[in-house]
Amino acid sequence: MTDPARESIPRHIAIIMDGNGRWASERGLPRKEGHRAGAEAVREAVEACNEIGVRYLTLYAFSSENWNRPKPEVAALMTLLERFLKTKAKEIGKKNVQLKAIGRLDMLPERTRNQLDKVIAETSSNDGLTLNLALSYGSREEIIDATKALAKEVQSGALSVEEIDHDIFSSHLYTNNTPDPDLLIRTSGEFRLSNFLLWQLSYAEIFISPKNWPDFHKDDFRAAVEEYKHRNRRFGKV
Ligand code: IPE
Ligand code: IPE
Ligand code: MG
User: Fold this and answer.
1) pLDDT at residue number 4
2) Ligand 2 centroid from CA 61, angstroms
3) pLDDT given at position 7
4) How far apart are CA 51 and CA 56, in angstroms?
5) Would you state the pLDDT for residue 88?
6) 159 belongs to a structural domain
7) Where is 75: in which H helix or E strand?
8) What is the span of the domain harbouring residue 219?
9) Does ligand 1 lie within 6 Å of residue 228's CB atom?
């Protein structure tokens, strides 16, 4: 029998982890200190997911547009990511978490990419939470890449135009094989999507927190899930 209480737990949560820079500025610290503190908050979100029973967690860690930030900030973010992968990877593995990544990963520096590939391979047989990092990710880029792949299949005769439907299109996105997010959390009080999962978030419930990401702790995460449970998802029906 299905447990109704369990049914209302979001299967997939996506987070726009925003406000690291402001967190640091408010403390008179350099922006990169905010990113460092933000990496700690990731650990809490992963733990909360494990405790609550969430199956997929997609974190917006670096957008296509973030490449346009000052070079030293981009470099600091890449170094932090490598460090995160090195130190947190073991911890993640022990928790039975499987790491994945979406985005134009070939744009990442080679060292970062290698470290990422290594952790993805090491955790590939874990069957607990799927932690999906959106890196060098832009939803419009993803949609363009999917469109190009579909066009090539049509051109080669492997696919007919009439066959293209929601499922076929979804399966050509980077998020292939992942259910759409049920809940989107954005921190730092900004009310925008910033080129994140535009297709996949079509029917997600949205939770905006005024807190900056490094201040978003387990309790805040739990509160977002509690609020989600009381939302009435209608999917266009009555
Ligand atoms: C989010 O924090 C982290 C990344 C975009 C990498 P920000 O760096 O955007 O912080 P704010 O929005 O400037 O405070
Ligand atoms: C979105 O935050 C990207 C990530 C959290 C990685 P930004 O700070 O880059 O977005 P905008 O510029 O406020 O829209
Ligand atoms: Mg920001």
Assistant:
1) 45
2) 9
3) 60
4) 13
5) 77
6) no
7) helix 71-94
8) 12-138+180-228
9) no
Tell me if 210 is assigned to some domain.
Answer: yes
Asked if residues 212 and 20 have their Cβ atoms less than 8 Å apart, the reply is: yes
CA distance 164 to 169: 6
Other residues' Cβ atoms within 10 Å of the Cβ of residue 95: 17
CATH of the domain at 117: 3.40.1180.10
Does 205 reside within a domain? yes
- In short, whether 15's Cβ falls inside 6 Å of ligand 1 is no
List beta partners, residue 183. Answer: 13, 205
Both tokens of residue 102? 């979406």
Position 6 scores a pLDDT of 52
The full DSSP string for 82-113 is HHHHHHHHHHHHHTTPEEEEES-GGGS-HHHH
Low-confidence ranges of the chain (pLDDT < 50): 1-4
Residues with a catalytic annotation lie at 18, 66
What one-character-per-residue DSSP string does 198-212 give?
A: TTTTTT-EEEE-SS-
Structural domain count of the chain = 1
Nearest CA to ligand 2 atom 8: 18
